Amino acid sequence: MASRSAREKAERDARKRARSYSIRQQVHEIRGRRRRRDDIVAAIVFVVVVALATTAQVGFFTVGPGAPAPSRSASVSASATPAPTRTLPPKSRSGNRTWTGTMTINTTKLGISLDGKKAPQAVANFVSLAQSAFYTGLTCHRLTTSGIYVLQCGDPNGDGSGGPGYTFGPLENVPKSTVTVSGTKEGVYPAGTIAMARGTATNSQGSQFFIVYKTSELPAPGYTVFGTVTSGLSALRSAVTSKGTADGSTDGRPKVTATLGAVVVQ
Q1: Which of 29, 62, 86, 177 would disulfide-bridge 220, Cβ 3.0–4.6 Å?
Q2: How many domains, in total, are found in the chain?
Q3: Domain span including residue 7
Q4: Is residue 56 located within the same domain as residue 174?
Q5: Are residues 95 and 222 in the same domain?
Q6: Are residues 50 and 116 in the same domain?
Q7: pLDDT of residue 63
Q8: Is it the case that residue 207 has pLDDT exceeding 90?
Q9: If you write DSSP's letter for every residue of the chain in order, what string do you get?
Q10: Is residue 83 one of the residues assigned to a domain?
Q11: Is 195 part of a structural domain of the chain?
Q12: What was the pLDDT predicted at 28?
């Protein structure tokens, strides 16, 4: 009889231990699920915050690539807040003179002329970046094919958000606003014009520039014109701009990847 009671007690104790273990396992699993859920929620919140911050920054300073050109008053934009990596060269670097050279895009070699007298700071900037091979290997990330006709290049990020690590202004050598379109004053930028891209602020110029491949009208306050394509523009049209954008829109990444080769100036 005593043996039976001891056996029953042992069985009860075993069942209690089993229930206790089961409960502890359930609690552990619940806590684990909660930790995983909390980790996932935290990760999602972090990604959303970063995405919103990035979108706000890029959206404020850029109009492309990929965004449809709203009209003839579309802008040519660039980031205004690159990370500091370089120093803006002084205006004196331009020599207050005309510079000549070549710029290669894929296999097309463009002859270029830079006006260091009319746009000394922009020319000093471009010459400094070119001679340090900053531009070599970068892509032309934006092509517009309606309203304005430009190929935009010179962004190390390749998406319109990057720069050399500094910005500068004010604007130089801006074409006079002699045209009015829907109440907006615009200046004429002849085919072959090389000008600085910028953000909303006029002192947000950096490394990005654009080549006007067909005469265009751009809204005031305008853009710094610092150079001219003296040869090879028709070849650039044939090889790159005439092919349109990758997604078929009027403002986006070129269908033909356009990569900058050597930019040589003297």
Answers
A1: 177
A2: 2
A3: 1-61
A4: no
A5: yes
A6: no
A7: 34
A8: yes
A9: -HHHHHHHHHHHHHHHHHHHHHHHHHHHHHHHHHHHHHHHHHHHHHHHHHHHHHHHHHHHH---SSSPP-STT------S-----S-PPPGGGGTTSEEEEEEEETTEEEEEEEETTTSHHHHHHHHHHHHTTSSTT-B--EEE-BSB-EEEE--TTSSS---SS--B----SPPPEEEEETTEEEEEE-TTEEEE---SSTT-B-S-EEEESS-EEEETT---EEEEEEE-HHHHHHHTGGG-BTTS-SEESBSS--BEEEEEE-
A10: no
A11: yes
A12: 45
Same domain, 187 and 56: no
Residues facing residue 184 across a β-bridge: 181
Mean pLDDT of all residues in 18-23: 46
Give me the CATH number covering residue 234. 2.40.100.10
The answer to whether residue 185 scores a pLDDT higher than 50 is: yes
* Rounded alpha-carbon distances, angstroms, from residue 63 to 55, 109, 114, 245: 12, 28, 26, 15
Amino acid at 100: T
Question: What are the distances in angstroms from CA 24 to CA 17, 63, 164?
Answer: 10, 57, 59
**66-97 pLDDT per residue, tens:** 233 333 445 676 654 444 568 999 999 999 99
Q: Specify whether 107 is located in the same domain as 47.
A: no
pTM for the whole thing? 0.72
Same domain, 147 and 37: no
Same domain, 41 and 126: no
CB atoms within 10 A of CB 240: 22
Task: Flag whether 109 is in a domain.
Answer: yes
